Amino acid sequence: MKNFRTIFKFELDNYFKSKSYMIMTILIAIIAGTLMFVPRIIDSVKGENDSDDKNIEAEVNEEDLRNIAIYDPDGLGDMEVLATYFSDAKFTEVASADEVKTLVEEEKAEAGFVIKSITEFDFYVFNKSMDNSDMEVFREYMGMVVKMDYCEKNNLNLEEYLAVEYAEITVNENILGKDGMQNYWYCYILVILVFMIIIAYGTTIASGITNEKSNRSIEILVTSTSTTALLFGKVLAGVVAAVFQFGLIALATLGSYQFNKDYLPNGLGMFLDIPGEVLLTFAIFGIGGFLFYAFMYGALGALVSKIEDLNKTAGSAQMIIMIVYMVTLFGIMDPDSMLMKVCSYLPISSYSAMFARVAMGSVGMIEIVISAVVLYASVVAMGIIGGKIFRNSTLRYGNPIKISNALKSLKKTD
To answer: Which pTM value belongs to this model?
Structure first.
C-alpha cells in the first residue's frame, strides 16, 4: 500500500506540475466561462447606447441586404408582400429568365426566381449552403399568392380565410417520462465527451508504461515495488487528472450558463440544461468505463517495448471503443431497444449505454445498481488481470507480445 501511495503521488504530480496540462485546463475553463458572459456584457452596452446603435444598424442593414433577381412576366407577384418574407434581401426585377441565370452565375445576385405560373417557379443559386432556405421561403410566399388568387376569384375575405387556415391550436403537452427531443443533444455531447476522455488518457497511460519499458527504467521500478501497484498508481492518477481537468471545465461552463441563462439563446438549453440525476449517472458510469479501459490500455502498453509498436497493439482496444461509441450514438434514438438493454450490462459498453438509457429512456433503480456493480466488479477484475499481464511482460523485450500469448501466460504458475 505504501508503494502504491508513492507511485500514485508521483504520477499525479507529473500531471499537476505539467505546465501544458495546467495552462490548458485553466485557459479552457476561463474561455468557456467567459463566453457565457458575452451576451450579458453586450446587452448592458447596448442599453447604454441604444439610440445611436439603432441609426447605425439601419444604415448597415441597408448596405448589407442580399440581392435577389426575379423574373415575373405575368405580374403574379407582389413586391411589397414579397419583401416581408425576405426581410434581409432586396429584389431586382429583370427582363428574362436567362438574365436571372446570368446574374446568379456571375454572382451579382445571391439567388434568382423565375415565376412560370401561380403554382410553379424556377429557383437559381450558385453554391447552396446547408442553411439556405430561400426556396422554402419563396414556396411559402407562392402559397400565399395562391390563397389570395382563390379568395379574389370566389369573392372571399382573405383575412377570414387565413383566420381559418392558420387557426391557433392550443396543445397542452404532458410528458410523463423523458423528453427525448430535449435530452437528445446533451446526451449526444456527453457520449462524445466520455469517448474522448477514454481515448486521450488511455493512450497517455499506455505510452507512459511503454516509455518506461523502452528506456529500461521499469527494471529498476519492479525491484522495489509490485507491477500491480505500478499499474494501479498510474491508472488512478490518470483518472484523478482527467476528472479534475474535465470537471473544472464543466463546472465553469455549466455554472456560467446558469448565471447568464436569461441572456443566452434558448437553443443552448438543449446542450447545457442537464438534470442532476443525469450528471450523477454520467459521473458514476463514465469514471467506471474510464477505469476499465485505462487498466486495459496499461496492460497493452506493457506488451510492447517500443513506442512505435503501441498503436498496433492498442488498436484492439480502440476498435472496441469505436464500436461501442457508434452503437450508443445510434441506440440513443431507441434507448429501450433490446440492443441497448444488453449493452447497458456489458462492462465494455455500460459506461455509455446505461447513461444514455437513463437520459433518454425508462430505467429502474435496480437496473442501474446491477449495471454499476457489474461495471466496477469488472474494473477490479481488469485491474488484477492487467497487473498480471504487466508483471509477465515487464522484462520481455523485442517484438510486441501477442495478446493471446499474454493471456495464456496468466494460466501458468509463477
So the answer is: 0.68
